[in-house]
């Protein structure tokens, strides 16, 4: 299975009716994109959402980024992932993550390891797929990255800079798969670009585990206050004209990422990012961009 070097990450489908989602994802496939990443954040169930996108397309790989381990017991995650692997061989990737609200007294690493233990011990009466379930773990800190290396195909990261990508590759080693989400904004006015970027990043600066992640990346109190310093904002949201954005996206690949999932921001809820996805396709889709390393 090959996700390509670049794919699309989007929250947009959380706000759109099914018919528009279907039309959008079919056009993504026609444009040549190989992979689309979807979160589980605003009401769409990870597996029904993935199943609908898979049923609406013929070749596109659908990646959960992420399916939250708190949304369902391991039994049901296992059953859903096995069915999708059977129905759409090589086209679904199970991305698992801690996600959601902070849980006092619960350590993410222990919770994820326990969840994987349950999945791996699962005996199922369902038919086994010809091609096995592929999974990635949302991982930032060294120990979670090590878990992703040892217990999954690799890791995927969200809202990190290229320095983190280089660190993650060192921890994962040469063989594990590394996918990086990167937010982009097609806006050349610095004041407007940074205002939109701060609006996007605001919620992440209010959650302890994201703040802890940013601190590990070396950002200071000054960087993380007031909506984020210019340097912090410019690292986490790549803005500018298309040529500038594409050039900066390649920084993650140069730092060791196998795949970059591009999240276009600045799109109003209910509207479509397709004009931007078309623009990015000219530079980044397979055939114009060398194929990325396969996952599994």
Commentary on this structure:
The protein is α/β, with parallel strands linked by helices and 296 residues long. It is 44% helix and 16% strand. The chain contains twelve helices and ten strands. The chain has an eight-stranded parallel β-barrel, surrounded by eight helices. Helix 3 links the parallel strand 4 and strand 5 (92-97).
Whole-angstrom Rg: 18 Å
The level of helicity is 40-55%
Question: What oligomerization state is this entry in?
Answer: single chain
Shape: globular
Instruction: Note poorly predicted spans.
Output: none
Q: What strand order characterises the main sheet?
A: 1-2-3-5-6-7-8-10
Distance between the termini: 6 Å
Number of strands: 10
How much β-strand is present in the residues?
15-25%
SSE pattern, N- to C-terminal = EHEHEEHEHEHEHEHHHHEHEH
- The helix count comes to 12
Biggest sheet architecture = 8 strands, parallel, barrel
- The helix-and-strand class reads alpha/beta
Mean pLDDT: 94
Briefly, what is this?
The chain is α/β, with parallel strands linked by helices and 296 residues long.
Comma- or semicolon-separated keywords:
eight-stranded parallel beta barrel, alpha/beta, 296 residues, 10 strands
Please give the structural blueprint.
Layout: E1 6-9, H1 18-31, E2 35-38, H2 46-55, E3 61-64, E4 67-68, H3 74-87, E5 92-97, H4 108-120, E6 134-138, H5 142-151, E7 154-157, H6 162-172, E8 177-185, H7 190-201, H8 208-216, H9 221-224, H10 230-236, E9 237-239, H11 242-255, E10 259-264, H12 274-284
Parallel strand pairs: 1-2, 1-10, 2-3, 3-5, 4-5, 5-6, 6-7, 7-8, 8-9, 8-10
């Amino acid at each position: 299975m090959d996700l390509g070097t670049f794919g699309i990450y989007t929250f947009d489908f959380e706000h759109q009716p099914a018919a528009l989602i279907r039309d959008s994802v079919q056009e993504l496939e026609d444009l040549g994109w190989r992979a689309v990443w979807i979160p589980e954040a605003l009401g769409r169930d990870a597996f029904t959402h993935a199943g609908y996108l898979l049923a609406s397309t013929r070749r596109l790989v659908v990646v959960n980024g992420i399916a939250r381990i708190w949304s369902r017991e391991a039994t049901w995650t296992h059953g859903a992932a096995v069915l999708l692997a059977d129905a759409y061989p090589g086209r679904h990737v199970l991305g698992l993550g801690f996600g959601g609200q902070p849980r006092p007294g619960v350590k993410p690493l222990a919770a994820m390891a326990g969840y994987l233990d349950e999945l791996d011990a699962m005996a199922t009466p369902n038919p086994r797929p010809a091609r096995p379930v592929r999974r990635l773990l949302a991982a930032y800190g060294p120990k979670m990255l090590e878990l992703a290396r040892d217990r999954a195909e690799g890791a995927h990261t969200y809202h990190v800079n290229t320095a983190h990508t280089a660190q993650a590759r060192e921890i994962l080693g040469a063989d594990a798969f590394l996918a990086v989400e990167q937010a982009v904004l097609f806006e050349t006015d610095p004041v407007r670009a940074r205002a939109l970027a701060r609006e996007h990043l605001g919620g992440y600066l209010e959650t302890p585990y994201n703040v802890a992640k940013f601190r590990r990346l070396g950002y200071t109190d000054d960087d993380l206050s007031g909506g984020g310093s210019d340097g912090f904002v410019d690292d986490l949201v790549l803005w500018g004209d298309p040529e500038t954005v594409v050039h900066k996206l390649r920084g993650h690949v140069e730092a060791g990422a196998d795949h970059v999932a591009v999240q276009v921001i600045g799109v109003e809820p209910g509207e479509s990012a397709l004009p931007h996805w078309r623009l990015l396709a000219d530079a980044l889709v397979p055939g114009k961009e060398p194929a990325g390393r396969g996952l599994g």
